[in-house]
């Protein structure tokens, strides 16, 4: 696993990952001991069941709409919006329509 990029690289996030019928696709863009950046594409009606993470997680919606539940409070996010899911707080994601998101987790 590389700790640092050797050269800069520009990405078009929407084009970097594609939807797959009836499933969720993920692609790790960067990962090291300090955290990770992962791109997701959720098809309609896919979900990520309730769980917790040991670090704050930032979700940036880059296509479509999603519903995120954080500690029993629902949020509907659309393209261009983001939310920070606090560490150790239960959260879940559902896809009322296909959506793509960038998830950033940085360890303390």
> What is the CATH top level name of the domain at 35-106?
Mainly Beta
What name is given to the CATH topology of the domain at 35-106?
Jelly Rolls
Provide the succession of SSEs.
HEEEEEEEE
Q: Round the mean pLDDT to the nearest integer and report it.
A: 93
Strand composition percent: over 45%
CATH architecture term of the domain at 35-106: Sandwich
Percent of residues in helical segments? under 10%
So how many helices?
1
Poorly predicted spans: none
Characterise the protein shown here.
This is Cupin domain protein. InterPro entries: Cupin_2, RmlC-like_jellyroll, RmlC_Cupin_sf. It comes from Salegentibacter flavus. Residues 43-104 form the Cupin type-2 domain. By secondary structure, the chain is mainly β. It has a domain at 35-106: Jelly Rolls, CATH 2.60.120.10. The protein is 4% helix and 54% strand. It has one helix spanning 13-16; strands spanning 24-32, 35-42, 47-51, 57-70, 73-78, 82-85, 91-94, 99-106. Strands 1, 2, 3, 4, 5, 6, 7 and 8 form an eight-stranded antiparallel sheet that branches. A hairpin with a 2-residue loop joins strand 1 (24-32) and strand 2 (35-42). The protein is globular. The model has no long low-confidence stretch (mean pLDDT 93).
